[in-house]
Amino acid sequence: MNLAVVGGGGMRTPLLIAGLIERRAHLGIERVTLYDPDAAALEVVAILADAMLAHSGRPFTVTTTSNPGTAFAG
Prior knowledge:
3-stranded parallel beta sheet; 3 strands
């Protein structure tokens, strides 16, 4: 499953990522796409998410975009 997060550059997104990691066995998520028009905020959250995923064995991938068409494709 692919999950798009609107406002993915927000300060609560790492908490969401932590919850998804914790419940990964029950959710079947393969990719999370963080969408936010603020590219700088997305960059910070992507760094945090990458560290969290590395620590947890990378149960899914996280991508970022400022393009709504890309965020909701698929």
